[in-house]
Design brief:
The strands form three sheets. Strands 3, 9, 10 and 11 form a four-stranded antiparallel sheet that branches. It contains three helices and eleven strands; from the N terminus they run H-H-E-E-E-H-E-E-E-E-E-E-E-E. The protein is an alpha+beta fold. It folds into two domains: about 30 residues; about 120 residues, no CATH class.
Length: about 160
């Protein structure tokens, strides 16, 4: 009797999983992105007006974006511990940066990230957020000398803004 019960239980479980639409063990599910043909989500670079700084670049969630002086408009140099404090704005494979607000599409690009993938650039500067900015509209990383160099916000023109917030 035992030999008959186990196959019946397994078959019944498989039928319930298939009927419920849940993936069976070991099966993979497709994301909406994959179902739509694999198009990766765009990374939005926009602008916001901040007190004492004027109009600066922000990400799609309104978080202030920074440039790192040691990058010298050439390559991403903030990695490891630095990137834990100043996360780079990463591009998913196949994703494109998109300009909104006063940001200029012609100034957007990307550079290889030494840790893998690509980082969004603006006028050649790799872009980063700052963990100290706990919400949109904050610029607590402005003019900090931290993790090996100075950090500044960028104007939509690409100009580095060096005044303190």
């Amino acid at each position: 009797m035992r030999k008959v019960v186990l196959p019946v239980v397994l078959a019944a479980t498989a039928a319930v999983v298939v009927a419920s639409g849940a993936p069976a063990a070991g099966a993979t599910t497709r994301t909406a992105e994959q179902a739509a043909g694999g198009a990766a989500k765009a990374v939005v670079i926009s602008t916001a007006k901040l007190p004492k700084l004027g109009t600066v670049l922000v990400d799609g969630k309104g978080r202030t974006l920074y440039m790192f002086v040691p990058d010298k408009r050439k390559k991403v140099t903030c990695t490891g511990t630095c990137a834990a404090v100043w996360p780079p704005v990463k591009l998913a494979k196949g994703a494109k940066p998109v300009a909104k607000g006063a940001a200029k599409a012609k100034l957007l690009g990307s550079d290889p990230d030494p840790t893998g993938g690509r980082v969004v650039t603006y006028d050649g500067w790799p872009l980063y957020t700052y963990v100290g900015d706990t919400s949109a509209g904050k610029a607590t990383g402005q003019a900090l000398n931290l993790n090996g160099g100075l950090w500044y916000v960028l104007a939509p023109s690409g100009k580095v803004i060096k005044k303190k917030a």
